[in-house]
Amino acid sequence: MKQLVNAFLAIMIAAFALMYLGSWMNKSEGYSGGNTLTIYNWGDYIDPELLTQFQKETGITVIYQTFDSNEAMLTKIEQGGTNFDVVVPSDYAIAKMKEENLLLPIDHSKLPNLSHIDSRFMNLSFDEGNKYSVPYFWGTVGIIYNPELTHGIKFDSWDDLWDSRLKNNIMLVDGAREIMGMALNSLHYSLNDRNEEHLQEALTKLNKLSPNVKAIVGDEIKMLLANEEAAVGVVWSGDASEIMDENDKLDYVVPKEGSNVWADNLVIPRTAANVEGAYKFIDFMLRPEVAAQNAEYVGYSTPNKDALALLPEDISGDERFYPPKELTDKLEVYDNLGKKMLAHYNELFLKFKMHND
Ligand code: SPD
């Protein structure tokens, strides 16, 4: 009898353990057990061949998930229950994650290839000393346009977007900071403005743009603009470069009122399950030949000076995508606006989106 009771107890304990493990794995997104590494990156933001190469070299299996905005990524990580090992937030999102204690400090001694990063992209205001982040790609926000379809408009001013000849002919990237920033800059305000009157003025101005707006879209914007579904787009510079690879009739410009210079970086969340694997991956991505291959594939600008030297001159010498420091010094980096103000920017952007439906 005693043996029977013991066997019954053992079965019950095993069943409970299995149930607990099952529910934990369901709750935990980005599960990195054993020899796996979970990466959470923007869509279309890595050459998939490099993931294969990394897996072959290290024997680590990569689990790869994507997001389409800093806000979506932040919400997921702030909610908890994730075990991403490497994430790729932008500047202001890094500042917010640091503030919320969501990141592990980076041990520079584990990243010998960090020396390949141009000092211009190190030590930026959102993470002085690069205590928590490693540069991945950078760029600007600007206007891509098809000169054959835009009546000779130069697009050297944001105000050119409001030209009535562009009716239903503009696509906008689906980003609250980008589009609110563009409207604020067009009014000669900072893209980090917190003044409520200015923000309402920006929304009113954006609503006046609606007749010209054909769509507000995510990564599909590249395909749509390359296929000439619209003559004009407000996009990240890297997307512009990729679109222009497909359709060389188009051009890209950063308007004179100013714009955003941004930096996307690799970070290791505090909840990472494979920290050693994360270091291996980050150091791999910092290798000049790897960073060069990645930059050529995704079309974005690399902060890796030794990778830049490996790129063909028509890429590395193109000042639309590699603007000199004198120019980028005149552009603004997004500040961490704080939870409340960031939510307010999102809310105003949502109002504008609803105005376009
Ligand atoms: N498809 C990849 C898009 C990455 C863009 N990151 C830019 C963020 C600017 N805040």
TrEMBL record:
<dbReference type="InterPro" id="IPR006059">
    <property type="entry name" value="SBP"/>
</dbReference>
<protein>
    <submittedName>
        <fullName>Spermidine/putrescine ABC transporter substrate-binding protein</fullName>
    </submittedName>
</protein>
<feature type="transmembrane region" description="Helical">
    <location>
        <begin position="7"/>
        <end position="25"/>
    </location>
</feature>
<dbReference type="GO" id="GO:0015846">
    <property type="term" value="P:polyamine transport"/>
</dbReference>
<keyword id="KW-0813">Transport</keyword>
<keyword id="KW-1133">Transmembrane helix</keyword>
<dbReference type="GO" id="GO:0019808">
    <property type="term" value="F:polyamine binding"/>
</dbReference>
<keyword id="KW-0812">Transmembrane</keyword>
<keyword id="KW-0732">Signal</keyword>
<dbReference type="Pfam" id="PF13416">
    <property type="entry name" value="SBP_bac_8"/>
</dbReference>
<dbReference type="GO" id="GO:0042597">
    <property type="term" value="C:periplasmic space"/>
</dbReference>
<keyword id="KW-0574">Periplasm</keyword>
<feature type="binding site">
    <location>
        <position position="92"/>
    </location>
    <ligand>
        <name>spermidine</name>
    </ligand>
</feature>
<dbReference type="InterPro" id="IPR001188">
    <property type="entry name" value="Sperm_putr-bd"/>
</dbReference>
<keyword id="KW-0472">Membrane</keyword>
